[in-house]
Amino acid sequence: MPFDVILAGALGVSILLFALAGGADFGAGFWSFLARRGERAKEQQQLIEQSIGPLWEANELWIVVSAVILWSAFSPAFSAYGTALFIPFVLAIMGVLLRGAFLAFRIEAQEEAPGAYRFFGEVFGTMSIVTPFFLGAAAGAIASGRLRLNSNELPIDGFVQPWVGPFPIMVGILGVATCVYLSAIYLTIDATGNELLQEDFRLRGILAGMALGALGVVAIFATRADAPYMWEQLYPGGPGSILMAVAALCLFASLALLYFRRYEFARAAAIAQVSAVFCAWAFAQYPYLLVPDITIQDAASPRSVLVAMSILIIVYVVVLGPALWWLFRLFKSHASSKREES
Amino acid sequence: MDNLIAARGVFGMSLSFHIMFAALGVVMPFFLLLSQGLYLKKKDPVYLALNKKWTTAFAITYAIGAVSGTVLTFGLGLFWPRFMDFAGPMIGVPLSIEVMFFLLEAIFLGIYLFGRDLLSPWVHWLSAVPLLVGGFASMVVVILANSWMNTPVGFTLDEAGQVADVEVFRAMFSPSWYAETSHMTVAAFEAVGFAFAAIYAWGMIRGRHDEYHKKGFFMGMIVVTLAAPLMIFSGDHTARQLAANEPAKLAAIEPLYETEAGAGISIGGIPDNEAGEVKYDIEIPYMLSILSYDDPNATVQGLNEFPEDERPNPLAMWWAYDAMTGIGFFLAALIPVFWIFYWRYRGVPTYRPLLYAITLSGFLGFLAIELGWLTTEEGRQPWVAQGVMRIEEGYTLAPGIGVAFIAFALLYLFLASTLIWLLKRIATGAPPEEEVEEAQRQEESEGAYAL
Ligand code: HDD
Ligand code: HEM
Ligand code: HEM
């Protein structure tokens, strides 16, 4: 069996799960950041906390899962990313550190200290924007072909050039926009029972979706200019472009569904949209882990490790699947049904 | 700043920061289970009040543990990419198992923290069991990775020096695995147990002699009564493991410069690398040979057995080792003293000097953990993987690591001070009487639960 491809698939799934979790905090940090004035700012803040409080730590770990799959099964790629993309990754993990800590501080500080509560929120919100941006930029650098290594495995163009370019920056911005869009839609469902709040996030979801669409169009040009390998697969009419078309349709559908207040369906469409973009990306990047120098096969660990890791992935699913199911059932279906009762 | 030094500094700093929360993450679920279990059995609202306080504190410390752990995960690739390139296949499997247990812990943490009003009391209690299992298992497994670095086995290299084949299980359970994991487990329980006792001892010193403080204090003391004496045996076992598998480390921590039959142990003193001897120390003859090999005349290898550029520097960690063992014996000695007072007071003693000593122990336990890791990690120098890869071959070649070091130092400082401020507020947030009453009220209004 091609264990290396299976593990690359598992790697992809864990990154997708991280993205679908809106970069761990369901992207809600951005909305929390904006919720300052207006009568409902406080309510919005509380909704956001309730909505992500029980879940963010589990969500956050999907990115850690990606990291361990990378270093166990494809250690040379992990090493190359860590060296060449040192700057964006360090900034991203600093963001992770502050974001999570200050979210937790904030939830616990609620009644204790209003001034601190506000300050903790500022840090949390800012870092929710910083983190997906730099992770996106790093991903953009990996896929663009801008990052070339010399024989010592150091980046030929230095440590800044690979990720400061139209395509990586665009992917960073898209990363933020995706989290923001997803979270607004998730929050419409969590706000069930509070019409006004739900309307707030409905409007935000529509705006964020439109922004995402506009950015997507700009990204087409950035891809053509700056990411030749991606473009080869994804250009309009190309082999991967069908997935992009599906994504565009899903985005449009999710906006329409939001407009008609069909929130559950809008959420499904948004998840489909992100998944489609992701599949298109994976399709375009295959078989490279670092375009165009490191392939999945180049980087794969000895077979015994690949087999052990593949078995472990199954154990992950068996052990964590039911636990996650319970977690989401408790807090996602329960929260809304409880509010409906009251 | 030199990039190698900065990379070591940033990583050591991050681990030293993380380990405190990791220890809390393993042992606090135990205290949560204990206090809530006692409450459910005895219906004494004091236990519920304690349980709630601890849950709040755990929510925060766990979060810091989780995010600082995420930093470490990426940190291995960011600061030690060439080491990970080499060692990833061997230590990656245990670390991947670790992450599974973390996920288990994180998922049930969400359930436990926010599920108090949604679940029936016993189901809520049960949901803390995976927290303990997840924390404990993840700690053991992550130390398997560290033990591989100390005693790397289970792989073959090809002519190019690349890893050709890996025996997954042998690499996971390298010779030092048992000594390290068991020692760290006991250490976590000892340090956190004393920290819990210390918090309430300090409260009692400040005049709070109520049930809330006494019960909190007593639960901590029960845990350390088991852990502290066990530590002496565990420490002894760990040192024997060094004699068998890591002789250079053992020689450096003693320090023993020349190979010797019937080697003694030196207590205190100052090692002099130039002269190759320890000055101003008290020597207990034959003790090192006895402790390492059960034979007063056994030969113990000194630093002179190893090439000059492969010797760990005793000055870097001999004091840490001595201090750790000193703390270990001090803490173990406190246990009988406590029980004598307990017997004389017919209950939790409020004798102030004893309470002061236990308050101090709350810090000493964590200090010993840090010192122990310093011993382990500095004692392995100059290797990142003992005998296989030197640290100069493992660190990152990216520039500006010094800047990252300073930035992380500031971040940890900022986080730690905010955390302490918040925990202090929570600790003194409400007088215990009110909390007990609130717990009582809550119990009365406990109504329908949805599972
Ligand atoms: C509460 C904390 C604590 C206490 C009281 C002690 N230790 Fe310890 N020690 C640790 C906490 C610790 C640790 C932090 O957990 C270490 C670091 C690596 C490890 O596995 O455990 C450690 C490492 C460590 C090592 C190095 C192991 C290696 O590199 O593989 C030795 C030889 C000892 N210890 C020996 C002792 C002795 C003889 C003690 C006397 C009672 C003692 N320790 C008390
Ligand atoms: C949490 C407990 C730990 C602490 C406090 C700790 C502390 C340290 C310190 C102080 C250093 C710098 C040593 C030096 O350069 O002189 C270091 C190095 C290192 N540690 Fe640990 N360590 C811990 C556990 C671990 C674990 C579990 C791993 C493996 C997964 C690990 C991997 C490393 C690596 C790769 C280095 C760099 C190489 C070296 O300097 O030898 N450490 N650690
Ligand atoms: C001896 C050293 C270590 C011990 C004992 C340890 C133990 C733990 C424990 C018990 C937790 C749970 C967090 C909590 O409950 O507060 C944790 C969290 C974490 N640790 Fe460590 N760890 C160590 C070193 C490392 C290293 C070297 C890494 C990275 C390679 C790492 C990665 C993580 C991650 C990613 C988390 C977050 C898990 C979560 O969100 O639940 N740890 N660690």
UniProtKB/TrEMBL annotation, chain B:
Metal-binding as UniProt keyword: yes
Species this protein is from: uncultured Rubrobacteraceae bacterium
EC class name: oxidoreductase
EC identifiers of the protein: 1.10.3.-
Family per record: Belongs to the cytochrome ubiquinol oxidase subunit 1 family.
Compartments in which it is found: Cell membrane
UniProt membrane topology term: Multi-pass membrane protein
One of the Pfam families matching this protein, by short name: Cyt_bd_oxida_I
One term of GO molecular function: heme binding
A single BP term in Gene Ontology: aerobic electron transport chain
Ranges that cross the membrane: 15-34, 54-79, 91-115, 122-145, 184-205, 217-235, 318-342, 354-374, 394-415
Entry keywords, A to Z: Cell membrane, Electron transport, Heme, Iron, Membrane, Metal-binding, Oxidoreductase, Transmembrane, Transmembrane helix, Transport
Name of the molecule in the record: Cytochrome bd terminal oxidase subunit I
GO cellular component terms listed in the entry, alphabetical order: cytochrome complex; plasma membrane
